[in-house]
Amino acid sequence: MKALIHENKEGMDGLSYRDVEPATQKSGEVRIRIKAAGLNHRDLSVLKRHQPTDPPFIVGSDGAGVVEAIGADVNTVSVGDEVIVNPGLGWQKNSDAPPKGFEILGFPDDGTFAENIVIAAKNVEPKPAHLTWEESGVLALPALTAYRVLFTRARIEPNMKILIPGIGGGVATFLLQFAKAIGATVYVTSRSEEKRNKALELGANAAIDSHENWAEALHGEKMDVAIESIGATTFNESLDQLRRGGTMVTFGSSTDDQVQLNIRKFFYGQFNLLGSTMGSREELQAMLDFIKKHNIKPIMDQTFPLKDYEKGFKRMAEAAQLGKIGFTL
Ligand SMILES: NC(=O)c1ccc[n+]([C@@H]2O[C@H](COP(=O)([O-])OP(=O)(O)OC[C@H]3O[C@@H](n4cnc5c(N)ncnc54)[C@H](OP(=O)(O)O)[C@@H]3O)[C@@H](O)[C@H]2O)c1
């Protein structure tokens, strides 16, 4: 089968689209013919963690396709079922944090950027009927992350004001759609005027230029919740926009991980700082019900055939996208 492999070199130079031996399913596993897959920021960052001396691996966390074969003992899924892959390995039930051993598909385990994937039957869910293959392929990781951040961690309510910096991000567009679906007021930032205009079309109440003074642009409006994934570059600017007693959730650091924090300002402000990562299978199922109920579809940036993977990776490395970059197979 064809797959996108990473080997021998660090970063994007180590990627190649080539033939590999397909895996066969064992007891409790299913084999899926992948029809569409989704690119996440993680797919770029793992290329730095995977060392040239390590064995090759198949990239990709998100994908959707048709079940082609099932192992013994599988009775929740049948051959021919249309499914999405849950990339959260080893997190079934809701809990404060992922259980020990939790991993995300697509490093170190082989991922979804391949014609076939073999995965545990408990890691597939029915494809949402209102979504296309491309929309289903990009959904699970970013939408699950956004769902847990908003509803489990920040516990947002319709009357709240939410700040989402960096609206171009794949998770950020789901954050905007989900928060608007429950009636919250949403402020976004972006470095791109085009993305700010698009965010306003998608329902953002205001869109701020990331380069300007955010407090001035917000005219003194304070936020109940700020959701940070850009990291060091914007962390303190986001924190400064919170009302006293407000909550910041952080789930990413596209720029630097190291942040300087004025703890006196922090404790006087009585702020809450929460971390979040992905979510459980139960949260994924709740997210799927939520998008069905509100008829939410992923905001697609561009879709490329997987053989043209370089175009998608380059677009994400340059942060040129708004929403999700997809691959078809
Ligand atoms: N913990 C988890 O479970 C989890 C899950 C998913 C993602 N993540 C992390 O969350 C982050 C976002 O992921 P994603 O896939 O949504 O990323 P993405 O699509 O690559 O988006 C990142 C966005 O951040 C903004 N940004 C990047 N560099 C910036 C800078 N120097 N200054 C200001 N803004 C900047 C850009 O927004 P504009 O172009 O609009 O300015 C960009 O579109 C990544 O760090 C990712 O690793 C974590």
TrEMBL record:
<dbReference type="InterPro" id="IPR020843">
    <property type="entry name" value="ER"/>
</dbReference>
<feature type="domain" description="Enoyl reductase (ER)">
    <location>
        <begin position="11"/>
        <end position="327"/>
    </location>
</feature>
<dbReference type="Pfam" id="PF08240">
    <property type="entry name" value="ADH_N"/>
</dbReference>
<dbReference type="Pfam" id="PF00107">
    <property type="entry name" value="ADH_zinc_N"/>
</dbReference>
<dbReference type="InterPro" id="IPR036291">
    <property type="entry name" value="NAD(P)-bd_dom_sf"/>
</dbReference>
<protein>
    <submittedName>
        <fullName>NAD(P)-dependent alcohol dehydrogenase</fullName>
    </submittedName>
</protein>
<dbReference type="InterPro" id="IPR013154">
    <property type="entry name" value="ADH-like_N"/>
</dbReference>
<dbReference type="GO" id="GO:0016491">
    <property type="term" value="F:oxidoreductase activity"/>
</dbReference>
<dbReference type="InterPro" id="IPR052711">
    <property type="entry name" value="Zinc_ADH-like"/>
</dbReference>
<dbReference type="InterPro" id="IPR013149">
    <property type="entry name" value="ADH-like_C"/>
</dbReference>
<dbReference type="InterPro" id="IPR011032">
    <property type="entry name" value="GroES-like_sf"/>
</dbReference>
